[in-house]
Design a protein that fits this description.
By secondary structure, the chain is mainly alpha-helical. It has one domain. About 45% of the residues lie in helices and about 10% in strands. The protein is built from 7 helices and 4 strands; from the N terminus they run αββαααβαβαα. The protein has helices spanning about 10-50, 80-90, 110-115, 125-130, 145, 175-190, 195-210; strands at about 55-60, 70-75, 135, 160-165. The strands form 2 sheets. A two-stranded antiparallel ribbon has the order 1-2. The longest helix is centred in the N-terminal third of the chain and has 42 residues, at about 10-50.
Length: about 210
């Protein structure tokens, strides 16, 4: 006798929500890429022509369910920036685990411009298309930072990391670690397409305002 598994309405709603978000991410990312590809080409050329090193910076970050993936950005720092990280960690302008330095000596001239307007994040649209990230969600953290997380902070990995999120539209680097976690968990509790649309619209204003963009 064949046993049939029956999904509960709650399970069905969860499946629909996840797949609706995935479809939303995929379609919107492809549309954005189609509109801004000249900007991506210009940004890549600016990085290549003004400093030594690769155009893209690929780094292991922690994603959904705590699984690491390779996140891609335009390189905004010197080629050996990772080697210098421990030397300047004490200069961080941000409270908590994540290092953020307003006048980071590792940042290139073009890199400062890309960061000011969040152009260095544009290649992450390819992460979204691959399924590693979402357009909206908690920012993916470094593996070594996650290793030091308090227990509650790991709850942010219940959803896919995003290019933008509540942290970005609330002040970015000016927000301390504990407050960032509070914002991330608030998003996890209310992860809907409506919430994503609101955050995406607020992101444009946050980029123009430039608060915490370093």
């Amino acid at each position: 006798m064949t046993m049939l598994s029956i999904e509960t309405p709650k399970q069905t709603r969860g499946w629909i929500a996840v797949n609706s978000k995935r479809l939303f991410d995929l379609v919107l990312s492809l549309l954005i890429l189609a509109m801004i590809w000249p900007l991506i080409v210009l940004s890549a050329a600016a990085v290549a022509l003004t400093s030594r090193g690769p155009v893209f910076f690929v780094q292991r970050r922690v994603g959904l369910d705590g699984k690491p993936f390779k996140m891609i950005k335009f390189r905004s720092m010197l080629q050996n920036a990772e080697d210098l990280r421990d030397r300047i960690a004490h200069q961080s302008d941000r409270e908590g685990l994540c290092i953020k330095i307003k006048n980071d000596p590792r940042t290139t001239r073009v890199g400062r411009f890309l960061r000011r307007w969040s152009l260095d994040e544009l290649p992450q649209l390819f992460n979204v298309i691959r399924g590693d990230m979402s357009l909206v969600g908690p920012r993916p953290a470094l593996v070594e930072e996650v290793d030091e997380y308090p227990e509650r902070a790991h709850l942010r990995h219940r959803v896919q990391p995003g290019i933008t999120g509540l942290w970005q539209v609330s002040g970015r680097a000016e927000i301390g670690f504990e407050e960032m976690i509070d914002l991330d968990l608030a998003y996890v509790r209310n992860c809907t397409l409506r919430t994503d649309l609101v955050i995406l619209f607020r992101t444009f204003r946050a980029v123009l305002d430039g608060r915490g963009a370093y």
